[in-house]
Amino acid sequence: xxxxxxxxxxxxxxxxxxSFQSDDDDAKSQLGFVFKLSGGVVAWKSSKxxxxxxxxxxxxxxxxxxxxxxxxxxxxxxxxxGVVPSIAEPVVIFCDTTEL
Length: 100
Prior knowledge:
By secondary structure, this protein is of the alpha+beta class. It has one domain (12-99). 26% of the residues lie in helices and 31% in strands.
């Protein structure tokens, strides 16, 4: 187990949000996410979604997928660095003040 500042172990958590069809010109939705490692921001993204969708549900699923892909990549990268023996806990991604 790896400790930081005499505190707890390394914890990777994410936050994500979607704005449905926020661009009036092309009707594309915005997606955004941020990942923190033990309280410090280590990755973030804010951009238009590549596709135009017809519902908020589709927009939310696309954002959840993008955030999950980033979480998987980051978890694997941290394990390969050997900073911690392994990250057994799943990465928590908070969505619109709820947890996935």
